Amino acid sequence: xxxxxxxxxxxxxxxxxxxxxxxxxxxxxxxxxxxxxxxxxxxxxxxxxxxxxxxxxxxxxxxxxxxxxxxxxxxxxxxxxxxxxxxxxxxxxxxxxxxxxxxxxxxxxxxxxxxxxxxxxxxxxxxxxxxxxxxxxxxxxxxxxxxxxxxxxxxxxxxxxxxxxxxxxxxxxxxxxxxxxxxxxxxxxxxxxxxxxxxxxxxxxxxxxxxxxxxxxxxxxxxxxxxxxxxxxxxxxxxxxxxxxxxxxxxxxxxxxxxxxxxxxxxxxxxxxxxxxxxxxxxxxxxxxxxxxxxxxxxxxxxxxxxxxxxxxxxxxxxxxxxxxxxxxxxxxxxxxxxxxxxxxxxxxxxxxxxxxxxxxxxxxxxxxxxxxxxxxxxxxxxxxxxxxxxxxxxxxxxxxxxxxxxxxxxxxxxxxxxxxxxxxxxxxxxxxxxxxxxxxxxxxxxxxxxxxxxxxxxxxxxxxxxxxxxxxxxxxxxxxxxxxxxxxxxxxxxxxxxxxxxxxxxxxxxxxxxxxxxxxxxxxxxxxxxxxxxxxxxxxxxxxxxxxxxxxxxxxxxxxxxxxxxx
Length: 568
What we know:
This protein is an alpha/beta fold. The chain is built from 18 helices and 27 strands.
């Protein structure tokens, strides 16, 4: 589809054009419920903006959004940004103290919040804030927690609101400020694998340009259907499953409950999405808990899956069932946020499932590279997004692996109130150090080989990539996740098992002693299997059982610092 470039590259211009072009088409809604049309969505956005203005919120003010992904989250996001204010998305899973710190650090003037996150605001000093709006009902909440629908406030035109409006009008043109491309649109506080939360500053141009430049990768067109299952407070979901679909006239459906199998499967059959974006953990869990057990439940299946020809046939049949599980009309299944397990990618390829792997980061709005399913290469990311420059800094002379650095219109302004950290990653001429290691093949496809900070130095100075060892461990039956790190002079792995599968299978037989014995044997087998496949300097000295799931970031990457620091 030919894409007409948007001008100016602002969220306000994007919304105005989409409301005009796709007025009566479905925009956002809950799965199985009547969605907002683009026209209705635009009306709700204007309503929220009017109430914020009436409460004294002015362009440049920061406004937080704390809540689960929903159509109302999208309304709040566009209401804030299109009136020239700055959205501060906050993950509702954050601890209350972390949430309060973000609100103070960003100097927010107003807060949109959901019922589920309300208790985390109980002890918040509310004096700096002029408005608290409940997302679930779009109601203005007073100090006694009584809510008044925003529409009623505007319709009634109460004396108080008229007074505030007349005061605001004294600032000439203030209520009609049109955001510019280089204006700050969003501050996103990351909770990364290093444990240091940073406020990433993204402009209107950063976000809209990246969505427009990425449009050919998820090839969205009017009428496409998406099912959103990741947090909108993360830039991956917000840019590619809210801003991009809104730009293209597509529709997005949301879940009212967390995406467990009991909630997700019926929603998939209702929405029948044509496009979805997920993190690897979701498809890996489906593969290990749904697909693999079906293939291995009979002796013949366990035997045939070891022969490449028959494995491909079995995977092809499983792929058809997987397509049915996802509604039967999937044309683009994007995976991003972390590395996908090799055996899971091999299954998706042989299943002929239309998967695509993307690479990006919060600091780049987010997409840096990706590809259409038709040209996806095994273990590769794909070509760089057109208009983005990517270089491999200080590459190894043999492996060609080096740090990935990026420059382009999608690169952030910097970290909010943190010039020192900004200077550490962003050069004066606009090059961003990603901290990721990778290389290009001869056709310009990017490959990722782990994080620079995670690289372990061997006894003789060799580079050991823990992610490569973890990918081998994760292939083992009953292994869900693993983490490799250095302990003294040795390499150690922590392994989290699939305890449900162990209990379910005959090998577990519900006997705790037998299960413990089986796990002990498996840990030894994992160590031997890994050490037979890696160089001598990458061999494991121990494999330890991790009895609880690893703590993770919003994109389901393990917070390595929590475990590595304990061992040092």
